[in-house]
Sequence to fold (191 residues):
Amino acid sequence: MKQDGDLDGLVRRRIRGLRTARGWSLDDLAARCYLSPSTLSRIETGHRRISLDQLTAIARALETTLDHLVESVTDDDVVIRPQRDEARGMTIWTLSREPGPHGMTVAKMRLTKPPPRDPAELKVHPGRDWFTVLSGAVVLLLGERTIVVEAGQAAEFSTMVPHAFGAHDGPAEILTILEHDGQRTHLRPSP
Fold:
């Protein structure tokens, strides 16, 4: 963003985009945020300045936050860079920048090492983990069981069972959905 004018235009486009994505007319949004349709029209087209109280009412009606309406966009907001953890043999792409519903995080992982075999290194945390294998195969240690999950297969399990996962006979890539405690356990860098 070069100037405040660029941000102002972006906010106006976001308001219109969110409204139309919901299939709402100006009248529909006006009824929800207690502004007149003509005021909303002038706000969206740039013919009226947006006051903070109007922006707050519009954000609430659109079920979003002020932060989401006014955040600037840079290349850093678009490009997801990998985080390498050589000690654990993982490369992680956190695909969801903000926690999703119920604190869920989506990540792609490239695994190059097998899971730890020492039972003391198996993790336990509240919740459930899900992953699908995109390529290769993954060894899932789940309690005393050893399960091989191959490309095209998925696994879902209670994380209250001691568990770990890693590559099986070569590198593997997975797409995973982790709850809050799983994200802290599996995506944090090794000490």
Q: What stands out?
A: The two ends are 37 Å apart (CA to CA). The first helix runs from residue 4 to 21.
